[in-house]
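Lay summary. Proteins are chains of building blocks that fold into shapes, and those shapes determine what they do. In this project we predict the shape from the chain. Here is one chain we studied, written as its sequence of building blocks.
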Amino acid sequence: MRSLAHLVVTLSLLAVLALPQGGCQFFSKLQTFTELGTASIANPVTKERLQKIEAGATLVFVGLNTWRDACEAGQINPGCIEQIRAVLVYTRPLEQQLPRLRAFVRKNDQINAIAVFNEIADLISIVKGKAAENGVIIPTTESSNGPK
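And here is the predicted shape, written in a compact code that computers can read:
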């Protein structure tokens, strides 16, 4: 029992220490994996999961366009252009991976589909985390009330 209590205290301290060191990224990744899931042999990439991750990627691009529009209109901080450029580094591979994922799902090549699906989920979580670091929330799922 003592070791369990020690483990809980240790994990709590790690979480507290991790927040200033990129904690937004960690929680963004956790949220993305909760929303989109990860793929594995036991949890393959189906057409439904493909549609879900494509919808998430579409919302990321819409969120980035909204961020850019607000930046160009001068509605947010002046350094926003550099922040957006830093995030775009991760969206370019995202655009390239989506057609590959579609092809792998169409061929039912689960080994490659799983690898690409997980890479796309990672890229989406990085983009969300970088945006969150700059005070911008980018949704990856639709709720009944709109994007969340």
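What the prediction tells us: The radius of gyration is 18 Å.
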